[in-house]
């Protein structure tokens, strides 16, 4: 188990070909708050976000992004590591030519 939040259970899984992936299963709260996630992630097509490998109802199979988990950082290191990464992700998403799916609000 990678993480359990109010909106999802997130698991690291192995695909048939042996590659690693992430399975995100939405909870009832997740179904309310993250229902547009598959369309949004597909729209960005891996540019600044995890690539959607497959989806079925309330479950997403996402590419696994290797690297240290920010939750493993100690003494406030997580924020120092995360802030530049979040900035890079937002910049990649802003410069993406992906069309915003209908019904998805802007930030």
Whole-number mean pLDDT: 82
Low-confidence regions: none
Give the beta-strand count. Answer: 5
Instruction: Kindly state the percentage of residues in helix.
Output: 25-40%
- Kindly report the spatial arrangement of strands forming the biggest sheet: 1-2-3-5-4
The percent range for strand residues is: 15-25%
Distance between the termini: 30 Å
- Structural class assignment: alpha+beta
The backbone outline, from C-alpha atoms, is: globular
H/I helix tally: 3
Rounded radius of gyration (Å): 15 Å
Biggest sheet layout: 5 strands, antiparallel
Question: What is the ordering of alpha helices and beta strands?
Answer: EEEHHEEH
How would you sum up this structure, described in words?
This protein is an alpha+beta fold. Helices cover 31% and strands 24% of the residues. It contains 3 helices and 5 strands; from the N terminus they run E-E-E-H-H-E-E-H. It has a 5-stranded antiparallel sheet. The longest helix is centred in the C-terminal third of the chain and has 19 residues, at 77-95. It is globular and about 35 Å long. The termini are far apart.
In short:
By secondary structure, this protein is α+β, with helices and mostly antiparallel strands.
